[in-house]
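Appendix B: complex inputs.
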Amino acid sequence: MIEVKDICKSFGNLQVLKKVSLTVNNGDVVAVIGPSGSGKSTMLRCINRLEVIDGGSISVDGAEINGNDKQIRKIRQNMGMVFQSFNLFPHLTVYDNIALAPRLIHRKKKEELDPLVDELLQKVGLRDKKDSFPAQLSGGQQQRIAIARALAMKPNYMLFDEPTSALDPELIGEVLVVIRQLALEGMTMIIVTHEMNFARDTADRVVMMDGGQIIEEGAPDRLFQDPENERTRAFLHSVIGRQ
Amino acid sequence: MDFSWLPAYGGMFFEAFFLTLKLALMAIATGTILGVAAGILLTSRFRLIRGIVRVYVELFRGSPLLVQLFMVYFGLPHVGVNISLNMTTVLVFTLYGGAYIAEITRSGIEAIPKGQWEAAESLGLNYFQTMGHVIFRQTLKIAFPSLVGFYIGMIKDSSLASVIGYSELVKKSQTIMNMTARPFETYIVVGLCYFIICFPLSKLVSYIEKRSEAK
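Resulting structure:
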């Protein structure tokens, strides 16, 4: 379980998060939507401490995240992160990108790594790309490898930071399929996304952020059909109107 | 021009050429180790560490190598340290080279996108794993041309060791000149010796730069 309580975060004079609270139970798939600059990505990055919060608290499985390096590494090993810009390691093959963390952290040998990488590549549908370098792959393929890499430590949680925002429209689908599959398998996930249809059909719960706050959350059908908050209504109207 | 004296002195040239190579290679090896370590420390999140290393780097980049050579050569005995001329020379070149290589390393590390750090850290890797397996390997690729360029400079600068009596090419050639009275021809040979080492290296750099451009 991930419990975010009253977290605040400022960059200089700009307050990006204003007392944000969110609880994610095991098995939950939470989609976070909202306009750019609303604090969605920052909230996600605070959860695995890529950003350090100024106030409030974040607990994972009951343990509050403090400044301890060892603790945060343990939490990160149990919490895969997928970035908007993939961030694959360009000097490593697909195999080594995926195998790096289990090899270094769990000291896994080739006999264990081979079937693990194979299983993950199968999951993202890219078994034939094992020996490719990231630069040889399309954006959609790179993001699928990034998902496989994030799964390599067998995490209980996955965080997705706008996983399809850097992709050409025709490549978005192949990435969403993989994420949807994870949702079906019961993975606990927080997904920051601009893909409203995807949020609606994949998430158990949708969280709407604006101005550094969660202004509304609820079941997708309810939130999309009948938003309570005026700003949610306006946002959905502008986004879905454009689509 | 008269090179008829050359065969008789070939052995001396060869010996001096070897000593130049030896000095350059030793200075490059130790300077690289020191410089890479210092460069990594320059990116440390601890201000005090950065500050200390910065003082070293600026001191050695901000004064002439020639002066550094004299200072250590005359200064060490003054404070009661007596080491061989060989050691003194390698020490100065190491400190001098390390300062420049530290800057090359630092700028290479800082050229790696922040997302690489974040991806590695979000997997649960610690600082050393991230630096060693993700950041530094990419830094090497970026820094390689500037590094080899600096090595070429080091090889040529090794001629300065002649001023404190290290018998490398330039020093030896003075002896040879005294015996042959053929300064022009002697310096042509000396110049060629440096060229033989440096030219292939600079070709290597442009080859690698071209290759990475093509990618």
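The mean pLDDT of chain A is 94.
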